[in-house]
Amino acid sequence: MYRIALAAVALTAAAACNGEDSAAVQPVAAAPTPTPSPSPSPSGTPVAGTPFARAVVADFDAPWAMTFLPDRRMLVTEKKGELLLVSADGSARRTIATIDVDSAGQGGLMDVVLAPDFATSKRVYFSYSAAGQGGKGVVLARGVLSGDAGAERLSMIEALYRATPLVNGDGHYSGRIAFSPDGQYLFFTNGDRQKFTPAQDKGGSLGKVLRLTPDGKPAANNPLAAQGFLPEVWSNGHRNLLGLAFDAQGHLWQQEMGPKGGDELNLVLPGRDYGWPNVSNGSNYDGSDIPDHAPGDGFEAPKVWWNPVISPGGLMVYSGELFPQYKGDAFIGGLSSQSLVRVDLNGINATKGDQWSMGARIREVEQGPDGAIYVLEDGGDSQGRLLRLTPAS
Prior knowledge:
The protein has helices spanning 6-15, 21-24, 118-121, and strands at 45-46, 52-59, 63-68, 74-78, 82-86, 93-98, 109-114, 123-132, 135-146, 153-162, 174-179, 186-190, 208-212, 233-236, 240-246, 252-257, 263-267, 304-306, 312-317, 330-334, 339-346, 349-357, 362-367, 373-377, 385-391. It is mostly beta strands. The strands form six sheets. Strands 1-2-25-24-23 form a five-stranded antiparallel β-sheet, with no helix packed on it. Strands 3-4-5-6 form a four-stranded antiparallel β-sheet, with no helix packed on it. A hairpin with a 6-residue loop joins β9 and β10. It is globular and about 50 Å long.
C-alpha cells in the first residue's frame, strides 16, 4: 500500500494548510477592540451574484463558532478563549467564560453546542486546544449556564475528553461537536495534527471521528474496537475535520480540508476508513502525487470533492422555511475561497450546488431560529462580522 514520504512534505505542510494557516498567522493581540453593531434592518443589503440580502448583526474578534439559545440569544466563541453571550439583535454581549487555551496557529476556543436537554440541564459543550506534557491537543469540555437573567455565567466547567497523543505543532485540531438526533451520543472530530499517519494509527484518536457518551466516555459497541482501535473511534482516515452535522434522516455528514486539492464532504459511516493519508483526490504541497480514491481500494470515497479547494469551514444542514428551495441542503463556509457553498443532499448521496462569492473568509454557518442563514466571517472588512442572510427579494 502506498505510503506518503513524510520527510519530503512535513516542512511544506507545516507552512501551508489549504488556506487555513493564512488565518493562523494573524495576531489576535493586534486586533482592534470590536464594538457592537446596530440592529440589522429587516431587509438587509442585496449581495451581488447571490440570492441573499445581508445584514450585519455584530462584529467579533476572530470568532470560530456560534449557536443559538432557545430565547434566540447566541453563544459565540472567540479564538483567544472568550465565550460570549450575545443578544438576539447583536447589540449587546458579555463574556460568560474565559477558557485557558493555546491559541497559537489554528488553536483557540473552537466549537460550541447546546446539550440536547439544555432546557433542563443548561449544559453547554465546547472544544478548545490546550498544551500539556509532550505537546498539544484538542479538548472536549462542558459547563452549565447559570445565574439570573442578565448576569449568567458558564459555571461547573469540566474537561470530558482529551485527544491522544499530544503532539507538537499548531494545526489540524478539528474539534467539531454534534449530538445524535436521539441525544444519546456525542460525535467529536480529532484532526491529524498535520502528522499524516496518526489518521491510520489504532492507538490514538488523531484523524478520527469519535462517538462518545454525553459524559465524554467511549460509547458502547463502537465498530473499530474489535480491530484494536481505541474504543471511542467511529471512523478513521481523516485529515482536518472542520464541519459535522446530522441531516433530517439521521445521516451524519462531515467536511474536511484536503491537502493541495481534494477538499471533501463525507457521509460518516461506522467503521469506515476514509483513506488519509494513503489516498486523496489532492496532492502533497510539494507537488508529489497521492493516489486518488478508486473503486475497490478499501477506502470510503467522498460524496463530493473540490479541486480547486474551497477550504471548508463550518457545516450546516438547512431545515428552515425562509429558503424552501434549499431545505435539506448542506451549507459550507469557504475560507480561502471566501464563499458560501451549497451541496444538494439526496439520501446517502450528494452533488455540488452553488458556490457564492461572499468577499470574506467564512468560518462558520448556522441556521437561525427565524430560518435565516447566519455566517461568521474570518477576516476581511473586520476581524469577524456576524451576518444574517435572508432572501434578496
